[in-house]
Amino acid sequence: MERECQEALLDTPSLPRYTFTIMKKIALTGIKPTGELHIGNYFGAIKPALALAETYDARCFIADYHALNQVKNADQLRGSIAHVAAGWLAAGLDPEKILFYRQSAIPEVFELSTQLMAFTPKGMMNRAHAYKAAVQDNLERGADPDAGINMGLFTYPVLMAADIILFDADIVPVGKDQTQHIEMAQALAQTVNHNYGAEVLKVPQAAVVESVAVVPGLDGRKMSKSYGNTIPLFCGEKQLRSLIMRIVTNSQTVEEPKDPEKSQIFLLYKLFASKDEQDALAARYRAGGMGWGDAKAELFRAANRVLAPLREKYEHLMADRPALDAILARGAERARPIAAATVRRFRAAAGID
Ligand code: TRP
């Protein structure tokens, strides 16, 4: 019976075809080009952001003017920008699928930032965590509260709000440390909309990325640049091996059975190995007779298998800067009309048209 129905269906003269345009929601990721990408960034930020592109209209940009607040050396900044651009591309960002551009290539960011400034209470900036922490730091050192604090740092949340609102972001995947910035972006968009009695700007939502994978560093603490315990994502094979060999272990002997879930070597291994491989190595841990040296050798093998192709792609991209620049320029070209539309909406609403 079922078979008959299927055949009947197949016989039906072909139905008219409709084309639907389904508007995907927009997700925006900002990447500040400071420091060297490490495997904690890869599993904690890059992979989750790329996964979002499966369900969202994903937009991803290099926040180079945010980095300028910190980095005042031109070669260093230029190098960091190229590093994160090549790094994200090597890690799998497909610039055909994800709009990928540099913040500095979109002048509308700075126009919207100025527009938003007029709606930003100074007191809100006083409450921003990063600024408050810098002031606190100065006070603790007995220094002037404003020492070393530039206006770029003070107004950072406004520029970040402009980044977000300009591209009509529905969601912004961020770590917990950034949620306050998103709340400020929401408040600014709402203030503008309320003032003009119209939906001039899209109000964004934060999507807090609960550390999908806590990536342990060489010393067992969370892998982080500030702890100096990282494994660079694109380091050479030799360095990868020697860093893995430096992972801190306890004094359990080779013979002793070991608990894989309590071993940071195993936690790292899980990020790189298949389920079967994980089960097999866990069994060897529990059986005893396997030393930390062996566990590290297994980790190196699994990590290098994943990282070697990324490293190769990264080096290839870094070797041809004009091609890398062209990818970003193409992204900016596609991004600018979107940006221009937002700025125009604001101007019209505000009477600056
Ligand atoms: N502030 C973010 C960071 O420090 C980087 C960033 C700048 C950003 N603008 C953004 C992130 C817009 C998301 C959306 O990591």
Structure description:
The protein is mainly alpha-helical. It contains 15 helices and 5 strands. A 3-stranded parallel sheet has the order 1-2-3. Helix 4 (74-90) packs across helix 14 and helix 11 (237-245) packs antiparallel against helix 14 (292-318). The chain is globular, with a radius of gyration of 25 Å. It starts with a helix and ends with a helix. The model is unreliable at 1-9 (pLDDT under 50). The structure holds tryptophan. Tryptophan is lined by residues 28-30, 32, 63, 66, 160, 163-164, 172, 174, 178.
Please give the number of β-strands: 5
For the biggest sheet, the summary is: 3 strands, parallel
Rg over alpha carbons: 25 Å
Give the termini separation.
67 Å
β-sheet strand percentage: 5-15%
CATH fold call of the largest domain? Rossmann fold
* CATH architectural label of the largest domain: 3-Layer(aba) Sandwich
Q: Structural class, from helix and strand content?
A: mainly alpha
Shape, principal axes of CA atoms: globular
Q: Could you give the order of the helices and strands?
A: HEHEHHEHHHHHEHEHHHHH
Mean pLDDT: 93
For the record, the CATH class of the largest domain is Alpha Beta
Helix content: 40-55%
Key traits:
Tyrosyl-Transfer RNA Synthetase; 5 strands; binds tryptophan; Rossmann fold; mainly alpha; 15 helices; 3-stranded parallel beta sheet; 7% strand
Task: Summarize this structure briefly.
The chain is mostly helical and 353 residues long.
List the helices and strands and how they pair.
Layout: H1 2-11, E1 26-31, H2 39-52, E2 57-62, H3 64-68, H4 74-90, E3 99-102, H5 108-117, H6 122-126, H7 129-140, H8 151-154, H9 156-166, E4 171-174, H10 179-196, E5 205-208, H11 237-245, H12 264-272, H13 275-287, H14 292-318, H15 321-350
Parallel strand pairs: 1-2, 2-3, 4-5
The protein binds tryptophan.
Residues 28-30, 32, 63, 66, 160, 163-164, 172, 174, 178 line the site of tryptophan.
